[in-house]
Amino acid sequence: MTGRQTRPRSAQHLRTVPADPIQRPGTPEQAWQAWAGLRGLPAVDPLACLPARRDRRPRVLVVAAHPDDEVLGFGGTLAVLAASGVRLRLVSVTAGEASHPHSRASVAHNLAAVRIRELREALARLGAADVQSVALGVPDGRVTQSEQELSGRLAGLLGDCDLCVAPYSHDLHPDHEAAGRAALAAGATRGVAVWEYPVWAWHWAVPDDGRLPWHRAARLPLPFAAQDRKRAALACFRSQIEPLGDRPGDAAILPPAELAHFRRDFEVIWR
Ligand SMILES: [Zn+2]
Predict the structure, then answer these.
(1) Which of 109, 148, 195, 255 is the most buried (most CB within 10 A)?
(2) Can you tell me the distance from the alpha carbon of 90 to that of 77, in angstroms, rounded to the nearest whole number?
C-alpha cells in the first residue's frame, strides 16, 4: 500500500509521536474485532449489485494507487467476482516504487518491477489472472499532482463498466485520496457508481470513529474459498510484508499487525 515514510519507521523515530496518523502506532485488529458495529454493518452481495444483462457479462473497474491496495481492500471480493465470470479491469495508478524511500537494499532499486510482478502473482492466486491490467505509470507519491489527468483517464476506462471500485478518498494517504477522488469524479462523469475501499483507515481510525462514514458502509462477506484465495494472494507481496534488509529504512510496510486487518472473513466498502 506504500507507507507515507517521510522518515524511516525506526524504533528511535517512534519515541516521539509523529504528526502523521499513518506513522503513529495503529489500532490493533483485536479492537476492531471487539466492536460489534463492524460485524453489524449491512451485508451486501456484490453480484446482486451488478446489472443482469443478456448481451454481455458485467464489468467492474478496480483502481489501486499502489499494486497491492486492491488486494488488501477488495481482494476477496475480486476473487468472488472473477469466479462468477465478471469481467475485471484493474488500474495500477503507480507502480509503488516509493514504498521504501530510505532503503539501500538492492531490491529497493527495482521496486516498480518487483511490485508489478507480485501483483500478477497475487491476481493468479485470486483466480483473476486474466483481468485486463492497465498500468498508468504515475510517479508513486505524486498522484495528487496528476489527479485531474487521472480522472480523465479513469472516465475513459470506465466507459463500458457497471461499477467502479477505488481507494477511499479520505484514507489519509495522499495517493489513495487522490486516486479515490479521481475515481469519484470519473464515476460522476460516466454515471457509474463508485465503491470506496479503506486501507490505511483501519490503522489510524478507531471503532465507531466519527470521522468515517459508517452510514454508507457495507460489509462484503467472503466465502471460505475467497478467504483462502485472498490469504494466498497477500503472501505474494513479499516486498511489503517482509523487511527488505536489516536497516531501519528496510522495515516491512505491512508487518503482521497491519496485515491482520486484511485477513478478515469480510471486506468493507463505502458506497
Ligand atoms: Zn497504497
Answers:
(1) 195
(2) 13
Enter the C-alpha cell of residue 29: 485488529
- 43 burial type by CB count under 10 A (0-12 exposed, 13-18 middle, 19+ buried): exposed
pLDDT tens digits, 79-120:
999 999 999 999 999 999 988 988 888 787 799 999 999 999
Give the distance (Å) from ligand 1 centre to CA of residue 94: 9
Q: From the CA of 176, how far away is ligand 1's center (Å)? A: 6
| CA separation, residue 18 to residues 12, 183, 208 (Å) | 12, 30, 23
Q: Is 56-98+108-139+148-270 in CATH node 3.40.50.10320?
A: yes
Domain ranges of the chain: 56-98+108-139+148-270
Specify whether the CB–CB gap between 242 and 252 falls below 8 A.
yes
How many CB atoms are located within 10 Å of the residue 19 CB? Answer: 8
Separation of CA 2 and ligand 1 centre (Å):
5
Q: Model pTM?
A: 0.92
Alpha-carbon dihedral sign for residues 165, 154, 122, 212: negative
Residue 54 Cα to ligand 1 middle (Å): 36
Per-residue cell: 248: 531501519
User: For residues 248 and 229, what is the distance between their CA atoms, to the nearest angstrom?
Assistant: 32
In this prediction, residue 10 carries a pLDDT of 40
